[in-house]
Structures are given as C-alpha cells and as structure tokens.
Design a protein that fits this description.
Elements lengths: L4 H12 L12 E6 L2 E7 L8 H11 L8 E4 L13 H7 L4 E4 L11 H8 L3 E4 L3 H10 L1 H9 L3 E9 L17 H12 L3 E5 H7 L14 E5 L17 E6 L12 E5 L2 E2 L2 E2 L1 H10 L4 E4 L3 H9 L5 E7 L25 E10 L2 E9 L3
Parallel strand pairs: 3-4, 4-5, 6-13, 6-14, 7-8, 7-13, 8-9, 9-10
Antiparallel strand pairs: 1-2, 1-3, 11-12, 14-16, 15-16
Helix pairs in contact: 1-5
The chain binds ligand AOF and zinc ion.
Zinc ion binds next to loops.
C-alpha cells in the first residue's frame, strides 16, 4: 500500500515546528488517521514527558475516537525500549492500530529495527516512507540525534557574524554590531535550543558576551569557555546566569574562592592547544546533543581542522571592515590545497533584513 503523502506531510510539519529543546531526545511528529479522517496528533515532549506516538494515541482518546484499525504516520521508528516512558511500540500494538508509516529507522542501537520487527510479528503492516524528499526531511530532523547516539559526540553548529570582506571585528576588536537586529534575534533562538554554548577565552576577553538567550525563557544548560590557563575571574562575571559555567583548562586555578560558581575540567593540551575533541566528548557524556560554537575565529578554525564542526551558519552583513590586523572569521592551521577544503552541502541562503544568512552542513571526510 502506498503512503498518503499529505498525512505524512502533517506528521513532518509537526516535528519540524517543535521549537523547544528536547535533548537528548530526537524531535518526532505522529498522526493517526482512519479512512482519510484525522483522529489525533502528537509531538515529542521534553523528558520525562511523552513521546510523539503516545501523545497521538492520547489525542485520539481525548477526541473520542477509537484507534482500532487506524493508521499511524510517524517520522521516526517507534521506540522499543523501556526508557523514561513505556515503549511506544507496545502502546501501538495495544491500541489496535493496524498500519504504521515510518519516516526513518531509529539509529539508537536499543531500537534500530527492533520495533519494526515487533510490529510486523504482531500483524501490523509497516511501511517506510518512499517519497525521497520526505525521507530526506525525516533524516534531517534526526541528524543531530543520529550523530550523538552513534558517536557519543555532540552535534556542533558554529555561528559567525561577518562583514562582506570576511572580518569578525575591526583592528581595535570592536564587533558590535556586525549583523542586523533580526539576525541577532535568530542567534538568541539558536542559543536557547542549544545544550551548551562554547567560546574561546579571547572572545570572552574582547567581546564580554553574556551567551544568554535574551528575552527567551529557555536557556542553554552550559556556557563553556576554553581557557588553558584561567587567571582572571572578573572576566567571567558577564556569563553569570542560571546556566552552569564550565571552563576547560590545563590546570584548575588554586584560588578557587574567587571563582565561585564555575566548574573547571582539566583536559590535556598539546602545543598550547586544548584537546577540543576531549572537551566535546565530555559534553557528550553530559547529554549535550546540540552545542553552539560562537567563536572566535581561532577556535572555529581549530575545530574545522579537526573535522569537529557539523554545521556552519554565517550572517554576512553588507559592510566592509578591511585592515590587515582586523580579525578574520576562521583561523586554525588551514590547508595547502583547494582540493583539501572542507565542502559544505545542503546550503540554505536566506535574506535577514540587510544580512544574508548562509547555512550549510560540513562534509567532514571528503
Ligand atoms: C519514540 N518517539 O517521540 C521519540 C523517540 O529516554 P527516553 O525514554 O525518552 O527514550 C529516548 C529514545 O527514544 C531516543 O534515544 C530515541 O531512540 C527514541 N526517541 N522514540 O518512539 C519519540 N523522541
Ligand atoms: Zn517512544
């Protein structure tokens, strides 16, 4: 039986419009129909609340519809395991749903086709969505989750505001503001949907950022600074908020009383550079699925050198800064040949007031 594209489209739209941080859960949308009639819909809620499929089943009940013989469309394979909620697969079987359309198989090893097999062995028809565009949208939805669950590493997005000539500040370090107000609002939303915001110590010193998601109730869980030899607690005062502050360093300062409220995590360094992969691994261990790197250019460049950035977002502002001594957007070691350049895919270009917002995925291993 072929899928009803419109029904699946609705499930996809529900998932794509989730605008709260669900980490470490993936966003899922589910709907239930019977003979073309919409009976109920649901989306994933933040832990420990319900998964999408359970919400869709509950919605049918609230709407006084029976789920017997109905069809479910869900953007991700239902879960198999007993986690914070009962397994969705069992709820689907109990509810008498007779057919399930699934966007993508759950890459979580605890699920990974087990639910599909369980549905099939309980006489429920299972179809994987065939439409290529919808399949791709379903895969995109779980991309950070897939990266996190299969590697244990956070999905890293880097954001940079640059002038048309690729500068992130003037020769005196002034950078306020390069991007438009609307672009900066988008960054606030990106911060609120991230588990951790990371900057280098030079950015902390020069920009004095708060890293908070301004005028948004949901804040990043961690504000993270990479600072090999932390020596100036005053600088960290701009970060004070409800988020926890982590400093990755070579050595914890001895005068801890002047660093109240800051957690130090020692990691190895080589040639005066902290082990960035280790820092990200530790954040992954703390269930950080989405992290946002806000600079500076040296940190972003080093992460790119190490293939640790998954997605880039640039806000390009129609201004020229110039100056051989003003900071460039990306530092690091760089490459020798164009053939070694990091390619971007899935490019999106959007006009935001006078800025151009460019977003793309970094294809790490070309
Ligand atoms: C679903 N529906 O809406 C989502 C699923 O920690 P727990 O118990 O919330 O389980 C999270 C896992 O469930 C997650 O790793 C992923 O495999 C799956 N996510 N599954 O049936 C949902 N968000
Ligand atoms: Zn579930």
């Amino acid at each position: 039986m072929t899928e009803n594209l419109n029904d699946y489209e609705l499930a996809l739209n529900l998932a794509e419009n989730i605008s709260v941080n669900l980490s470490p859960r993936p966003p899922v949308g589910a709907i239930i129909t019977n003979e073309g009639e919409l009976l109920g819909k649901g989306v994933t809620q933040p832990s420990p609340r319900n998964h999408a499929e359970i919400n869709a089943i509950l919605d049918c009940k609230n709407n006084n519809f029976s789920t017997k013989g109905s069809t479910m469309y869900t953007t991700l394979e239902p879960c198999f395991h007993e986690g914070e909620t009962n397994p969705c697969v069992d709820k689907i079987i109990e509810s008498g749903i007779s057919q399930v359309f699934i966007g993508v198989v759950d890459p979580n090893p605890k699920v990974n086709e087990k639910s599909i097999n369980k549905l099939l062995s309980n006489g429920i028809k299972v179809n994987i969505i065939e439409d290529e565009v919808q399949r791709k949208r379903s895969e995109d939805l779980i991309e950070p989750f897939k990266h996190f669950i299969t590697t244990g590493m956070p999905y890293v997005t880097s954001k940079i505001a640059i002038s048309l000539d690729g500068k992130i500040a003037t020769k005196t370090g002034d950078s306020k503001w390069i991007s438009s107000e609307k672009s900066r609002e988008i960054v606030q939303k990106m911060r609120s949907l991230s588990d951790a915001i990371i900057i280098g110590s030079k950015t902390l010193k020069i920009d004095k950022p708060s890293l908070s998601a301004k005028e948004i109730s949901e804040q990043p869980r961690y504000k993270v600074v990479l600072n090999s030899k932390p020596s100036n607690p005053e600088r960290y005062l701009t970060l004070k908020s409800e988020s926890e502050i982590i400093v990755f360093c070579e050595k914890t300062p001895t005068d801890l009383s002047s660093w109240k409220g800051i957690e130090f995590i020692e990691i190895a360094s080589k040639d005066n550079k902290l082990d960035l992969k280790e820092a990200l691994r530790i954040l992954g261990e703390r269930n950080c699925m989405n992290v946002l790197v806000e600079g500076g250019g040296q940190l972003i460049g080093s992460l790119i050198d190490l293939n640790l950035i998954n997605k880039m977002r640039l806000f390009i502002s129609p201004m020229l800064i110039g100056g051989i001594n003003s900071a460039d957007s990306i530092g690091g070691e760089g490459i020798e040949f164009i053939s070694q350049s990091k390619k971007l895919t899935d490019m999106e270009v959007v006009r935001v007031e006078s800025d151009i917002m460019v977003t793309g995925k970094v294809k790490s291993h070309v």
